Amino acid sequence: MLRIYWRLSLFLFKEVYPLMKIKLKNKKRFQMILIEKGYTQRAFSKNIGMSENYVNQIINYKKHPSPAVAMKIASVLELDFNDVFDVSN
Predict the structure, then answer these.
(1) CA triple 57-60-61, angle to 5 deg
(2) Which InterPro entries does the record cross-reference, listed alphabetically (predicted)?
């Protein structure tokens, strides 16, 4: 059931935000969340299946994650998408 919900929400998210830029709300807060959840940046990167370099670029606002990556990050951290990311155009 959760897998169906995940796919449906990802589909709807891609349709609603096709040309929007997604970025972290707060770099320092995100880093604190990683620490609180017991992750190093390297361990978190491995856990979500992304390179450490790519995650670092997202954290430093050099890359905008896709909706799928952003949702995966929020999901792994057990947070609401809107608590972690801002969406703008």
Answers:
(1) 85
(2) Cro/C1-type_HTH, Lambda_DNA-bd_dom_sf
Cβ–Cβ < 8 Å for 85, 23: yes
Q: What is the pLDDT of residue 89?
A: 77
This model's pTM is above 0.90: no
Q: Report pLDDT digits (tens) over 61-88.
A: 999 999 899 999 999 999 999 999 999 8
Measured CA distances, 16 to 13, 61, 81 (Å): 5, 22, 14
Residues 6+ apart with CB under 8 A from 6: 71, 75
Question: Position 83: which residue type?
Answer: D
Going from the C-alpha of 40 to that of each of 44, 46, 64, 67, 83, the distances in angstroms are: 6, 10, 21, 23, 20
DSSP state letter for 24: E
